[in-house]
Amino acid sequence: MLMLVLFFIPLILINIGVVTTPWLLFALYITSGIGMAGIGMGIMHDAIHGSYSKNQKINRYLGYTMNLIGANATVWKIQHNVLHHTYTNIQGADDDINAPFFLRFSPHSKKNRLHRFQHWYIWFFYGLSTVSWITAKDFIRLVRYRKMGFLNKKDEFRNQLIKIVGWKLLYYSYALIIPILMVPIAPYIIILAFFSMHFVTGLLISIVFQVAHIMPSTDFPLPNQNGVIEGNWFAHQLATTTNFAPKSRFFSWLIGGLNYQIEHHLLPNICHIHYKQISGIVAQTAREYGMPYNTKRTFAAAIRDHIGTLRRLGIHTLPIR
Q1: Whether the Cβ atoms of residue 178 and residue 15 lie closer than 8 Å to each other
Q2: Is 284 in the same domain as 156?
Q3: 318 near 312, Cβ under 8 Å?
Q4: I need a labelling partner for 19 at 20 to 30 A (CA). Which of 104, 139, 204, 259 fits?
């Protein structure tokens, strides 16, 4: 609830025209961006997994908060629930590591000279990630997922396309168009403030999700010659995922329990509020069976190792275990 308040109240204040100075405009938009990130990590994420509530109607309606922040719940569900959770860290299948040519998230992707600097410029593109969502990414992936065999029911693709357009028009109306009409500040400043909101959201969300998988201790497996992923699915999730800052209750609350990524990947149908309680059982079971249980003591340590991994990916391939 707090994250919904942080997102909507600043936008309401902007929309009713009480903002008259650029510094207040930026402050409100950035606050809204923090709320947007909180919705993405703490509400939408669990809801679309069906784990926010035992009532699936509540999950469905709360999943629409993804649409309210400019993206699309249906596209996210395919990208995240199906592809990322099934094919974690598998080049070509996991869309979380399928990156444009100037980024290299897997040792199996093609390398170029730009990549040696990616650990420096990655933060700018992390910040732009939600700008991509609210503009082109949802449409591009909707078409791609249809070709992959999703959205193949009668009129499903067309209906989803209409819904995406409708939701985005609604979002742009209250997040940008009405502010331009109501706020007595130059439109270009309002647009810059709007982008600052998304930059904060994109940076926060990207860092939290990416440091869980692009790490020196995680694997990047490939299917065998027959296109089959070898090994046990649970072992695969343990080998490709990392926890961080497990002792920080506040941080865990702030990011919707996503510091317990191992537990989330193994048990995505369980609400994140239970991850801390079950993490000890998961860690002990992993040790009993000789499986990895990757964890970093702090978020800062996780970011440091993430930067190191990006740097090594930019220079050479990582060892494949």
Answers
A1: yes
A2: no
A3: yes
A4: 204
Widest CA span in the chain = 64
Q: Are 62 and 228 in contact (CB under 8 A)?
A: no
185: its two tokens: 């500040």
CA quadruple 29, 30, 31, 36: dihedral positive or negative?
positive
State how far the alpha carbon of 73 is from the alpha carbons of 67, 88, 183, in Å: 6, 20, 30
What distance in Å separates the CA atoms of residue 68 and residue 4, rounded to the nearest whole number?
10
Closest CA to 189 of 19, 7, 34, 10: 19
Q: Which secondary structure element, helix H or strand E, spans residue 183, and what is its range?
A: none
CA distance 197 to 29: 5
Domain of 245 in residue numbering reads as 233-315
* Pair (97, 45) in one structural domain: yes
- The per-residue pLDDT for range 206-260, each reduced to its tens digit, is 999 999 999 999 999 988 776 667 778 999 999 999 999 999 999 999 999 999 9
Structural domain includes residue 85? yes
Report the phi/psi class of residue 69: left, alpha or beta, with left for phi > 0 and alpha for psi in -120 to 50: alpha
Domain membership flag for residue 154? yes
Q: How does pLDDT run across 252-295, given as a tens digit for each residue? A: 999 999 999 999 999 999 999 999 999 999 999 999 999 999 99
Q: In 3D, which of 217, 219, 235, 232 has the Cα closest to residue 288?
A: 235
Cα–Cα dist 240/218, whole Å: 5
Strand pairing class (294-296; 242-244): parallel
